[in-house]
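We modelled the chain as a single entity of 475 amino acids. Its sequence is:
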Amino acid sequence: MSPLWGWALIWVGTIWMIPVKTEKREPIGQNLIILLIDGYGAALLNRTKPEALIGMQALSENGVQAEYLRSVFPTHSWPNWMSLVTGLYTENHRFTADYMWSNEKDVGFQRGTGPNDTDDLWWQDLPTPLWYTAGRKNIDVNCYWFAHCHRGFGDLLVLVPPKRHIDLSNPDQTTDLGEQFPEIVKKIFKIQPYKQQLFLLRYSKLATAIETHGYGSDEVEEAISRIDLHIHDLQKQLDEQGLFASTNLIVLSDHGLGQVNEEEQYFLEECLADYSKVQRIVNSHGMVMVFTDPEDEDTIFYELKVCDQWAPTGDYDDTEAPPVSVYRAADIPESLRWADSRFMSPIVLITKPGTTIVSRELPSLPVEVSTTVKAVGGWEPESNDMRGIFLARGPAFKTNEKYGPIDMVDVYQVALNILGIEPPHAHNGTWSQVESMLTEGWEERPNSENLNSSTPTSAHLLFIFSLFLCLMRNR
């Protein structure tokens, strides 16, 4: 045996004697699961019987609960999904609504289901989303039916199996949520000694039941019980593996849904003398964007402003909000944080809760609008039914504590803090609204960049294997 070979064996033996333990290793940092439930309003949660909320009660008693989550305007899914993963108001992340229209390109965005929805037009210059920021810090990212998480961003692509790509045209897509939990728990348990984990999950069945059947229906009651069972089962499986010592669970919604008042459903074309002056109306029900040629804007604005359908009647109470408010784009209230968004129309209609606007004859996006839907979003965030939910538990959160309202844009900074990441851009969240929810030491959270580097074990083994091959060749 050559001297070199002998020294190599001594070195290899020394390496194996280094205390890199084979028994269970401690988690490298904290993990995070975010479960987003479409359409679950705080008002619905508050009026649901406690016996139907075993999972929610366990979450609240072992963690924190906000009075409600204030969504961004419009209270549609896409703007709020974007606010969740960027911490920005709509006019700052600029994903304007569920449906958008580009006059310049003469194409529309249709909630991710349209033929042109993959065009760069909609996605260029968007702010950095949470999963990109986490992935760049070498955190393991996993997405389940979460909006555009499977799309490449910059120099990173999250590998999401096609069956877990979001598809809003399939109302049953998220039915199998509970079947994903064993895989999630197993992966956290296996990988957390080497990498932090971020799971982004979405559930849509409750919103579908509310929109289709309305509050108080058997279908909605069953849907509430079903999602609560999922929340209970996920906590149970995490608990059984002792993972709540390392893993945080946030359950929240994008916004609530408000009951439609069938007696206050208006058809937009009945306000107009000449339909041809409207190029297109985009979105429906609680918020409608009206596109016209510049030379027709004044005419259309005036006709909508004085429309008999929603004009004040003799018994009108001027302290109440009008059924329909008609705005020029420049006059949209600043409090909505929306006016500077992309693809804005020159005229916007916003209704009071319960009132809806649809069309049967005008060019519209979406092309087909349900006039029988039982509940919708889109109204102003301060509306009671539009308020969402926020509950969380895990090592980052206090136990059995309730707090006042927080904003959708506040959640982003909490997620980053748990993962030990500095925000990559300025955001609209207010730290003082969420700081008191967190356990002591949040300001000393280890930087994820240092946590998720190659582990000593893998580095040693790679070096040993390379040296072994080299020596074998030189024998």
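As a brief sanity check on the tokenised model: The chain is about 30% helix and 15% strand. Residues 262-372 form a domain with the Gyrase A; domain 2 fold (CATH 3.30.1360.180).
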